[in-house]
Amino acid sequence: MGDFFVSSIDTSMANIYRDTATSTPLVYVLSTGADPLQALLNFAATLNMSEKLRRISLGQGQGPKAIVMVEEAMKHGNWVML
Question: Where are the alpha helices (DSSP H) in 19-77?
């Protein structure tokens, strides 16, 4: 099938960011022990977005809060990490 299917890709935040658009969410599918939080915090700092990065852990009862956070982000250009 070729090298495309067996080669590792560059998963740096800068590379991923170049492939995104404001109208498309970025979804990470994580394996056990994987945590992109620090990489995202560092990347946000390089773009002066630290103050616009919101985070919420989705647990019991957090869904409505997350919806508000996403709606606010869409209005004000914030980032939300769920």
Answer: 37-46, 63-76
